[in-house]
Design brief:
This protein has 258 residues and is of the alpha/beta class. The chain contains twelve helices and ten strands. The strands form two sheets. The protein has a six-stranded mixed β-sheet with strand order 1-2-3-5-7-10, with helices on both faces. Strands 4-6-8-9 form a four-stranded mixed β-sheet. Bound molecules: acetoacetyl-coenzyme A (CAA). Belongs to the enoyl-CoA hydratase/isomerase family.
């Protein structure tokens, strides 16, 4: 398996576990982490044996934001000219399921990275925030959009305008995280959840992900239409035939991803 400067990547059966590993900077997201993550996600998407990924950080920080020291001296022309942060769109475009397992700080770009994953499992130590306003800027990796869609205008606006962090309980109540687990169990619980997903029909997993994401980008009628067409399309797969036969025959399905 490939080695990365800023990540530890392990295979746990059909689950790819990616641990952000820049502890000296609380996993601040610099260009190297982006490069490494894009390579790791491309390898994950391309490997038919890998069916779900988990992204996690350290007990202290999932990621404390984009790397402020890397951005500090930049000007408008460089940021705009290089379309700084555009590479993260490729992370968000990962086709197979990705779970964020968040302990400690998920701030700025860290919160935005967690929100680019398909859902967030939070340790009871997790803290989420968009503190960019304190640096004289705004979210730049999609936070103003994904946070608002996740928690609604009032809380997103308060978080962006004040920089206030919310804890795991508030994040769960607001709909930002799927579930809270004890910090000591976070990674194992995330891998367990990922293993459940990895056991599902692979094409159906991709289709379910695509259609839930479509809810963020389309109106209701177009989204329902998109869902129905993908649903119809799955009736051209062997896994649909197998899954429904397995139900009727009262046995587990055996998936071929075809
Ligand atoms: N960028 C670069 N370095 C960072 C960093 C970041 N986002 N966050 C932490 N670090 C570094 C610190 O500079 C420090 O390095 P040194 O030891 O070399 O000084 C090291 O990580 C440890 O951090 P602290 O000493 O600050 O640790 P702490 O426990 O006292 O505080 C913290 C933790 C509250 C998370 C604090 O580090 C902090 O406020 N970090 C910045 C949070 C932030 O503003 N994030 C948004 C960044 S901008 C952004 O993300 C834009 C976007 O939309 C994508």
């Amino acid at each position: 398996m490939a080695e990365y400067d800023t990540l530890i990547v392990e295979h746990r059966g059909a689950v790819t576990l990616v641990t952000l590993n820049r502890p000296q900077a609380l996993n601040a997201l610099n260009g190297q982490i982006l490069t490494d993550l894009l390579a790791a996600m491309a390898a994950y998407d391309a490997d038919p044996g890998q069916r779900c990924a988990v992204i996690t950080g350290s007990p202290k920080a999932f990621a404390a934001g984009a790397d402020i020291k890397e951005m500090q001296a930049q000007g408008f022309a460089a940021m705009y000219g290089h379309d700084f942060f555009a590479g993260w769109d490729r992370f968000a475009a990962t086709r197979k399921p990705v779970i964020a397992a968040v302990a400690g700080y998920a701030l700025g770009g860290g919160c935005e990275l967690a929100m680019m994953c398909d859902f967030i499992l939070a340790a009871d130590t997790a803290k989420f925030g968009q503190p960019e306003i304190k640096l004289g800027v705004t979210p730049g990796m999609g936070g103003s959009q994904r946070l608002t869609r996740a928690v609604g205008k009032a809380k997103a606006m308060e978080m962006c305008l004040t920089g206030r962090m919310i804890d795991a309980v508030e994040a769960e109540r607001a709909g930002l995280v799927a579930r809270i687990v004890p910090a000591d169990d976070l990674v194992e619980e995330a891998v367990k959840t990922a293993t459940v997903i990895a056991g599902m029909a692979p094409l159906a997993a991709i289709a379910n992900k695509e259609m839930v994401l479509a809810a963020f980008e389309t109106g209701l009628a177009a989204g329902v239409q998109f869902e129905r067409r993908l649903f119809h399309g799955l009736f051209g797969t062997a896994d649909q035939t197998e899954g429904m036969a397995a139900f009727v025959e009262k046995r587990p399905g055996v998936w071929t991803g075809s």
